[in-house]
Design goal:
Number of domains: 3
Distance between the termini: 34 Å
CATH superfamily of the largest domain: Phosphoenolpyruvate-binding domains
Helix content: 25-40%
CATH topology of the largest domain: TIM Barrel
Shape: elongated
Number of helices: 17
Structural class: alpha/beta
Length: about 475
């Protein structure tokens, strides 16, 4: 077991006075221990390691920096490994770049050739296998759009519909097509083995086209850590309920979604995904271009601030920074701004009514009944917090699904669960020693609640736990306690 933070921190300096979490991507602008510390203090709860970039050595250094800070700050910090997935790209051009004309013929060929204004290599037989006359291809994140006129197993003759400038190794998207390609590559498998060896807390998969893709990656993980599935293909949206059922969490990857489907449809799909995840009790992260302008500017646009607020209003568990924190000129300012927008949004009078508009369909289990009752009880008795005791984190996930009006303080003897729950709405985790006695549990709960700054003498709290202690999935105790 990885050595973790000091148990039962005396400090409440790191307590977040907000529910929605912040995921920050690490890159050249943020990889140092000093910068990571600044990001944590500014509001980052989860750090994303993007395995599309960087070496294993780079990621190991970042992982070490985060774990050292975790000990120093006495606060669990989650690390998300984001696998690259299949990357479909063009070949290269004679002069690294070409200028195309709208309406011209442009040929894509399987064999390796030196690209020019008439043709370029596309070394992916699986794409040619999926093409047919009339299909469209999007190059360079949709900046160039082609329509297939004629095609075969090793070529496609296309018409340029839009876009004129194209350079080496740009990405290829085939909207509306399920490509005959595995969701996990050999590189992904090697990266996964490495990341699990480091001790990451979450794994995210790219290019999920169908539910079986999720199963394939989960089998590769082998239950070591939970899997976050990035929804970035229209076929994944079409199979959304089953994708959510098989996944442990979902990321709304709006960049690729906006390429693969009309941009005007993305906001509605985002709301549908968030709603479905909340109903299923699975964490959901909204990502891509949230504060994009802050890559080069110290403040966001008003539209970007509104975009972040919309995800918060809808009840997303977390919002994510990509280039803003990985390579931008203002990574700390971007995290600070994200924190400020979330905090302000959660104080708005429309915030609670929006969250409460979704009626959660509970399962006929004691655990679901206790979690729902805890939220209602906390509001009725004006409790300051709900305190959950959990070994795997399942009790905290259920508590968060209810989106209660008070904070959720999670006490767990499992460090891995404490870290994983850093992603979950409203949950503040404390890694504690295992407790086997009810009286000791109540006293420990009250002591930690005061130490962590959630209550003072005279306040009330609501406690949930499972008796007998140590049995997974047996939440059956609800207790009101006075501090």
């Amino acid at each position: 077991m990885i050595e973790g933070p000091k148990l039962d921190s005396e400090s409440d300096d790191m307590k977040r006075n907000r529910n929605t979490k912040v995921v920050a991507t690490i890159g050249p602008a943020s990889a140092s221990k000093k910068r990571i510390r600044e990001l944590v203090i500014a509001g980052a709860d989860v750090f994303r390691l993007n395995f599309s970039h960087g070496t294993h050595s780079d990621h190991k250094k970042v992982h070490t920096n985060i774990r050292e800070l975790e000990l120093e700050l006495e606060r669990p910090i989650a690390i998300l490994c984001d696998l690259q997935g299949p990357k479909l790209r063009l070949g290269t051009f004679q002069n690294s770049k070409v200028e195309l004309e709208q309406g011209q013929t442009f040929r894509l060929v399987l064999k390796e050739v030196e690209g020019n204004e008439q043709r370029v290599s596309m070394p992916h037989p699986e794409i040619f296998a999926a093409l047919e006359p009339g299909a469209e291809l999007l190059l360079d994140d949709g900046r160039v759009r082609l329509k297939v006129k004629d095609c075969g197993p090793d070529f496609a003759s296309t018409e340029v519909l839009a876009g004129t400038s194209l350079s080496d190794r740009k990405g290829v998207n085939v909207p509306g097509k399920i490509l005959p390609i595995d969701a996990i590559t050999q590189k992904d498998r090697e990266d996964l083995i490495f990341a699990l060896g480091l001790g990451v807390d979450w794994v995210a998969m790219s290019f999920a086209q169908k539910p079986d893709d999720v199963t394939m990656v989960k089998e590769a993980i082998g239950g070591a850590v939970p899997l976050m599935v990035k929804i970035e293909k229209p076929s994944a949206v079409e199979n959304l309920e089953e994708m959510i059922e098989r996944a442990d969490a979902i990321m709304v990857a709006r960049g690729d979604l906006g390429v693969e489907m009309p941009p005007e449809k993305v906001p509605g799909v985002q709301k549908e995904i968030i709603r479905s995840c909340r109903q299923a009790g699975k964490p959901v992260v909204v990502a891509t271009q949230m504060l994009e302008s802050m890559i080069s500017a110290p403040v966001p646009t008003r539209a970007e601030a509104s975009d972040v607020a919309t995800a918060v209003f809808d009840g997303a568990d977390a919002v994510m920074l990509s280039g803003e924190s990985a390579m931008g000129a203002y990574p700390v300012e971007a995290v600070t701004m994200m924190h400020r927008i979330i905090s302000q949004t959660e104080q708005e009078r429309f915030y609670r009514p929006g969250l409460e508009a979704l009626q959660i369909n509970l399962q006929a289990t004691g655990s679901d009944a206790i979690s729902a009752a805890a939220a209602q009880t906390a509001e009725t008795v004006e409790a300051k917090a709900i305190i959950t005791h959990t070994r795997t984190g399942s009790t905290a996930y259920r508590a968060a699904r209810e989106r209660p009006t008070v904070p959720i303080l999670c006490l767990t003897p499992t460090l891995e669960a404490a870290r994983q729950l850093c992603l979950v709405w409203g949950v503040h985790c404390v890694h504690t020693a295992h407790i086997v006695d009810l009286r000791a549990l109540v006293q420990k709960t009250l002591d930690v609640t005061v130490k962590e700054g959630f209550a003072v003498k005279g306040d009330r709290v609501v406690i949930t736990a499972g008796v007998p202690f140590g049995q997974v999935g047996k939440t059956n105790l609800l207790r009101i306690a006075d501090v």
